[in-house]
Design brief:
Elements: H1 2-11, E1 21-22, H2 25-31, E2 44-51, H3 55-66, E3 71-75, E4 88-89, H4 91-97, H5 103-110, E5 119-123, E6 130-135, E7 152-153, H6 156-169, E8 173-175, H7 177-180, E9 190-193, E10 196-202, E11 207-215, E12 218-231, H8 238-242, E13 247-262, H9 264-273, E14 278-282, E15 287-294, E16 299-305, H10 318-329, E17 337-351, E18 355-356, E19 361-363, E20 369-370, H11 377-397, H12 407-437, H13 442-454, H14 462-477, H15 490-504, H16 514-517, E21 562-564, E22 573-574, E23 585-590, H17 594-609, E24 613-620, H18 633-636, E25 642-647, H19 655-658, E26 666-669, E27 675-679, H20 687-699
Parallel strand pairs: 1-2, 2-3, 2-12, 3-9, 5-14, 8-9, 12-19, 23-24, 24-25
Antiparallel strand pairs: 4-7, 5-6, 10-11, 11-12, 13-16, 13-17, 14-15, 15-16, 17-20, 18-19, 21-22, 21-25, 23-26, 26-27
Helix pairs in contact: 3-6, 3-11, 11-12, 13-14, 17-20
Keywords: FAD, Flavoprotein
GO molecular function: FAD binding; oxidoreductase activity, acting on paired donors, with incorporation or reduction of molecular oxygen, NAD(P)H as one donor, and incorporation of one atom of oxygen
GO biological process, one term: ubiquinone biosynthetic process
C-alpha cells in the first residue's frame, strides 16, 4: 500500500493541459472520479455542490470549508426566509456548533434567558385558566456534566444569518443571477441565490446540474458540474425527486397553518404573567399552539389545525389571523403585526436511500427525513447528518479514503433517522394525549373531516360542507367550556384529574431526550464493532425523557469530561475539544502505560504510511500525575503530535471508569467525535497489524 501511495503522490504533477479546472484530481482519479468527458474546455468541475441554503446546507458548507474542501451552494430563493420555523437546538447540535468559531457564544448571547422558555403551558386562553404546565429544564441540564454546552432556544432564520456570517468570514459571497451574468464559471465559495435546480445528469465522470434563474425578466439556464452533489433542499427536495428516491413512512399526519407575527405587548404580558416556550390553548372558539420564539421581542408563531378543501388558505387572511390570535389570547392587543402565513403538512417519513449514482449524490436533512416537530428532531438530525458527512467527503476529496466510504453515511445515518421518526411519532402521540383527555381527540376530528370529504358529506355543496365542518368542530370545542371543564362537573373533574396524571407522569409532549440526543450510536459503518457486540431487539419507545449514560462503545459519541491539556494550564476543555474541527484527524486515547505507548507508536507508523493524520492523547488521572514531569516525550519519540491530558479535579469519576474500561485500554476517535474502535483492557494482537486492520476497516481500504 505504501508503494502505491508513493506512485500516486508523484503521479499528480503530470496534469492535463486543457483549460478545464478540476480540483484534487490526484485522489479523484484513483478513487473513481475522472477528468474525462467535460463538454466544454472552460467548464469548472466543483468538488462539492450543495443544493439548499438552509441550516443543514450551510453547516455542511462551513464544516467542509474548515476541512479544506471547496464547495458551492445553490439556493432557489432569492433571499433567506424570515419565517422562524425550527427553534430548539439540542445538546449534540450545540456541541457540533462549538467547532464553528464563536457560533455557540453568539447563540447564547442572542437567545432569551432559559427561565423565559423552560416551560410548556396548557390553558384555555393566555389570560384564562391554566390547565397545567411542565418544566422541561432539570438542574443537571445546566451543569455541563454530560455535555460541555446546554440546549438552546433560537429561531431558525436567526441561526441561518449567523451561519451565513460564518461563511462570509471563510470567504464566501452571496451571488445573485445578475451578478453572475457572463461570469457563471467563477462560482466557487459562493452561495448562488435565486438559482433553482431543474435537472440532474450523472455521467461516469461527473454530475451536471442544470440551474435555472431569472435575469432581467428572462429565464436563463446554466450547467454546473461537480464531483459530489448533496441535496439539503428541504422536505420537498427537488434533488430527491429528480433522482427518483421515494419516501417511506406515514404521510399527512396533520395539516396546519403557521402564522408568524409580532406583538411586543403580548410578549410583555406573558413575561409578567406566565413565560414559556409553548402555549397549548383550548377554548370554545379556537384551538392552537403558540410558539414564543422571543418574548422580549414579542415574536411568535401560531400553529392552527387546517382542514382543506373545506378550509382554504384564503380563510387565513391577516385580519382573520388577528381575530384568531385574540380568541386564543383572551383579549385584544392593538400591536399584533402578522408577518407571514404558511400552510404545511406534518409527515413521518424517511427516504429509501440517502445515497445514489455511484456514491456521488447524497441527501441530508429534511431531504432525507421528515419528522413531526415534536421534540425538535428535524433540524437537529439534519445538522448531525452534515457532521457525519463532512469528514467523509473530505477524506474522499483528499485521497484518504475511496468513494465507497461514502456508503457508510447511509449505513450510519439512516437507522438514526428511522429511530428518530419513531421517537418523534411517540412524542407527537404524547402531545395529542392532552386534548384527547379534554374530550378533543384529534383522531375523531380527522375522522369527521374524512367523513365530510369522502363520505355522505361529499354530496353536499362545498359551502354546506364548510358549514357542517365548522358546526361539528364547534360542538367538539364545547368540551372545554367552563360549564364542562370544572371540578363541580363529574365529567370535567375526571378529565382534569386525567390531565394532571399525564403531566405528573411525564406523558405529555417532551422537549429534551438526553439519552437519544447524546447517546445515539452507530452499529455499523466506518467503525470496528466489538466481537461481542450483538444488536438487540428494537427498543420500546415511550416518548418520555431518559437520561444519558456515557458509553465508549464503538459508534458512540466520545463521552464528555473536563480536562487540562497542559499540567501548567488552569483552563479546562472538554474531551470533545481534543478532536480538531479544522482537519481530518483521528485521536487515539491511551493511559500512560508502556503497552499503550507501544500501541501508539505503531499507530503513528501505520498512519504515516497511509497518509492519515493522527493525534495521541495520554490521559493522566489525578492520582497518577507523579510521572507527568517527564510526560510522554521519551515514550513517543520521535512522534510529536501528542498531548498529555489531565483529568480536571472537578471530574466526578475516573475517565476509564466512566468509559467502563481499564487503564490498559485504548480508544480511537473519528473526526466527528464518534468512537471508531477500542480495546477495553489491552491488546492481545500485534498492535501494528491491528492498527492496519482498524484503519482499513474505517476507511474502506481493503487492499
Amino acid at each position: 500500500m505504501g508503494f502505491l501511495r508513493l506512485i500516486r503522490r508523484y503521479a499528480y504533477p503530470f496534469r492535463d493541459k486543457t483549460r478545464i479546472r478540476l480540483y484534487a484530481l490526484q485522489h479523484m482519479q484513483r478513487r473513481g472520479f475522472s477528468k474525462e468527458g467535460v463538454p466544454n474546455g472552460n467548464d469548472v468541475v466543483h468538488p462539492v455542490l450543495i443544493i439548499g441554503a438552509g441550516p443543514v446546507g450551510l453547516v455542511l458548507s462551513i464544516l467542509l470549508t474548515k476541512l479544506g474542501v471547496n464547495c458551492t451552494v445553490l439556493e432557489r430563493n432569492k433571499a433567506f426566509s424570515k419565517h422562524p420555523q425550527a427553534h430548539f437546538i439540542n445538546n449534540r447540535s450545540m456541541e457540533i456548533f462549538r467547532k464553528i468559531d464563536g457560533l455557540v457564544e453568539e447563540i447564547q448571547r442572542s437567545q432569551p434567558p432559559v427561565d423565559l422558555w423552560r416551560k410548556f403551558i396548557y390553558c384555555t386562553s393566555l389570560s384564562g385558566s391554566i390547565l397545567g404546565s411542565v418544566d422541561h429544564i432539570q438542574p443537571q441540564d445546566l451543569e455541563h456534566v454530560v455535555s460541555p454546552v446546554s440546549v438552546s432556544h433560537f429561531s431558525q432564520y436567526k441561526l441561518t444569518m449567523l451561519l451565513f456570517k460564518q461563511l462570509q468570514n471563510l470567504g464566501f459571497q452571496i451571488c445573485t443571477p445578475e451578478s453572475l451574468e457572463g461570469n457563471e464559471q467563477s462560482c466557487e465559495q459562493k452561495i448562488m441565490m435565486g438559482h433553482e435546480c431543474v435537472s440532474i445528469d450523472a455521467s461516469d465522470d461527473f454530475i451536471t446540474v442544470t440551474a435555472s434563474s431569472v435575469i432581467k425578466g428572462k429565464r436563463v439556464e446554466q450547467n454546473i458540474h461537480c464531483n459530489i452533489l448533496i441535496g439539503t433542499d428541504g422536505a420537498g427536495s427537488t434533488v430527491r425527486k429528480l433522482v427518483g428516491i421515494e419516501m417511506r413512512g406515514e404521510k399527512d399526519l396533520q395539516k396546519l397553518v403557521s402564522v408568524h407575527f409580532f406583538s411586543r405587548d403580548l410578549g410583555q404580558f406573558l413575561l409578567e404573567e406566565n413565560p414559556g416556550m409553548l402555549f397549548f390553548i383550548f377554548n370554545t372558539e379556537a384551538i392552537g399552539v403558540l410558539v414564543a420564539h422571543d418574548l422580549r421581542q414579542g415574536e411568535f408563531v401560531l400553529q392552527i389545525p387546517f382542514y382543506p378543501p373545506q378550509q382554504t388558505i384564503e380563510d387565513f387572511s391577516p385580519k382573520a389571523c388577528e381575530k384568531l390570535i385574540s380568541k386564543l389570547v383572551g383579549r385584544e392587543f392593538g400591536d399584533v403585526d402578522v408577518i407571514d402565513i404558511k400552510p404545511w403538512i406534518m409527515h413521518a417519513e424517511v427516504a429509501e436511500r440517502f445515497i445514489c449514482r455511484g456514491n456521488r449524490i447524497l441527501l441530508a436533512g429534511d431531504a432525507a427525513h421528515r419528522f413531526p416537530p415534536a421534540g425538535g428532531f428535524g433540524m437537529n438530525t439534519g445538522i448531525q447528518d452534515a457532521h457525519n458527512l463532512a469528514w467523509k467527503i473530505a477524506s474522499v476529496i483528499k485521497g484518504i479514503a475511496p468513494t465507497s466510504m461514502l456508503n457508510t453515511y447511509e449505513i450510519e445515518r439512516k437507522p438514526i433517522a428511522l429511530f428518530n421518526t419513531r421517537l418523534s411519532l411517540e412524542n407527537y402521540k404524547a402531545a395529542m394525549s392532552v386534548p384527547a383527555a379534554l374530550g378533543l381527540d384529534p383522531t375523531i376530528a380527522n375522522t369527521v373531516h374524512q367523513f365530510i370529504v369522502n363520505g355522505i358529506g361529499s354530496i353536499l355543496p362545498s359551502g354546506l360542507q364548510k358549514v357542517a365542518l365548522d358546526g361539528i368542530f364547534g360542538i367538539g370545542r364545547a368540551q372545554v367550556s367552563e360549564f364542562v371543564l370544572n371540578e363541580s362537573n363529574p365529567l370535567g373533574s375526571s378529565r382534569l384529574a386525567k390531565l394532571k396524571h399525564i403531566f405528573e407522569e411525564g406523558k405529555s409532549l417532551q422537549l429534551q431526550f438526553p439519552a437519544e440526543d447524546l447517546g445515539f450510536r452507530y452499529l455499523q459503518g466506518a467503525l470496528v464493532p466489538e466481537s461481542n457486540d450483538i444488536e438487540g431487539p428494537p427498543e420500546v419507545l415511550t416518548g418520555r425523557r431518559r437520561d444519558y449514560t456515557p458509553s465508549a462503545q464503538p459508534g458512540s459519541r466520545l463521552p464528555h469530561m473536563f480536562v487540562k491539556v497542559n499540567p501548567l494550564c488552569e483552563e479546562t476543555i472538554s474531551t470533545l475539544d481534543l478532536v480538531s474541527g479544522d482537519k481530518v484527524e483521528f485521536v487515539l486515547i491511551i493511559a500512560p502505560v508502556e503497552e499503550s505507548y507501544h500501541l501508539a507508536r505503531e499507530a503513528f507508523k501505520v498512519a504515516e504510511e497511509q497518509e492519515i493524520s493522527l493525534k495521541v492523547c495520554i490521559f493522566w488521572s489525578t492520582d497518577s500525575v507523579e510521572g507527568l514531569e517527564k510526560g510522554s516525550e521519551t515514550s513517543l519519540s520521535p512522534w510529536k503530535n501528542y498531548a498529555d491530558v489531565i483529568e480536571a479535579q472537578s471530574s466526578t469519576s475516573n475517565w476509564w471508569d466512566m468509559c467502563n474500561m481499564t487503564s490498559r485500554g485504548a480508544i480511537l476517535v473519528r473526526p466527528d467525535e464518534h468512537i471508531a474502535w477500542r480495546t477495553s483492557s489491552g491488546l492481545a494482537e500485534d498492535p501494528r497489524v491491528e492498527m492496519q486492520r482498524v484503519f482499513a476497516a474505517i476507511l474502506g481500504e481493503h487492499s
